[in-house]
Target: Prephenate dehydratase
Amino acid sequence: MKVAYLGPRGSFCSVVAEYAFPTDKRCAYDSIIEVIEAYEQACCDFALIPIENSTEGSVTMSIDKLFHDSKADVVGEFTLPISQNLLGHASEQPLELIYSHPQALAQTRNYLRAHYPYAQVQVMPSTSAAAEFVQQHPERPIAAVANYQAAEMFDLEILAENIQDSAQNTTRFWLLGKDKQRFDLPVQGQKVSLALTLPHNLPGALHKAISVFAWRDIDMTKIESRPLKTQLGQYFFVIDVVNNKENRSKISFAIEELVTLGVQVRVLGDYLVYAVDEV
Amino acid sequence: MKVAYLGPRGSFCSVVAEYAFPTDKRCAYDSIIEVIEAYEQACCDFALIPIENSTEGSVTMSIDKLFHDSKADVVGEFTLPISQNLLGHASEQPLELIYSHPQALAQTRNYLRAHYPYAQVQVMPSTSAAAEFVQQHPERPIAAVANYQAAEMFDLEILAENIQDSAQNTTRFWLLGKDKQRFDLPVQGQKVSLALTLPHNLPGALHKAISVFAWRDIDMTKIESRPLKTQLGQYFFVIDVVNNKENRSKISFAIEELVTLGVQVRVLGDYLVYAVDEV
Model:
């Protein structure tokens, strides 16, 4: 079995891939788009992509690509606590430049501004790439924001630990695939994710769509609006609802009712949520 | 009067600033955070920031900074049609690298992949910075994605025009300030924007909050969820509703009812929407 994931090795996505598929072939791709396309072109059996971070919000590239250019099903979700660290070389020199992926820089913005007000931040394609760059320039007063794995992989010192602004920093990852495999990880729950496109000619369409779940007491854990890319003000909505014994048949009825209202419904997936505890 | 905006000169934000404040002092800042902080520290009378693009969605940095770290009021909105172009030096050599801001690269992703499948894309802090970099390296087979202003400003050739993937590519900008100035630009409408934080102990809270507008026939033009940055699954919601003669008092009642439900309501602004037509 083969799983494609957002690389490079050492990325948070690779940590999840190792936990979920310890003995399978894991292939790193450079971008979320390439991961999803690898799956669409049947180059792999599963694809693993980040979908939401508790501080920075949805990974819009994942949601948009999945909605616009893919028919893949979500067959699992993994949640990973995110620990960001400042990695570099022990030195007396004050840091001049700090490198990382934009999401990691955003997650540590307040810390960096408070502790390194004079250091400039510079965007890199990934946290691993940032760590690798710092490794390659030991003579320069620079550092990278990345995870523990990157410190080990690139033999860097951890100058500061757990520097993320929000203590409860967690990222959700979606697994795309055909088979609903069971993983040997703690299960946190079960969810159904839907993408809804509302009809233009239905006044208060979003309210009516949400009512379908509300009056059935189906818990909605998330609603996200994303542009349809047609014109300003036109959106599709991604809705996550809790699935359990009580809800199962109610969700089917809710979807039928949505269709009757003229709402286009795509079931993105009905999946278990697993917790990955990073060591 | 002084207006702070997201620079550098030649950016889309600077185009709006020039239209709205042709005779006032306009100060470019390097980041959205710095623009909002300049306003908070009373270094300027107005601040202009991008808030949403029709293809790429919300500028989450603007919404988050405004919600979490600022009390500024929105006193106006500007919509600008966005035209992206490929700028460079006329040459026979195939392009090897294309530079731009991540949003501009995202807006032209399909075009670039179709026409320059072998060129790598490289992120820059702004479209103007990308154009400037290309200007400084006339010997290299590189190009920048940027607007017409940048072509003029950095004396580059337009290698391809209007390369954005969505023909109707438009960006909304918010003006923060104290005074509701009238601008000499066509008015497209009037809106009220609210940030809602829902109570934990109210089942179906989002449905109830939206109902407050729906049963009053108040048109909601946008709903956006953003993380509260506390933990995964905790959000605040930004809602835009149409304001007009009929709605005015209904909106006040709706807000009162939200407060009664235990919803924390922040009125981000009640403002006119102006159309800027880029030349």
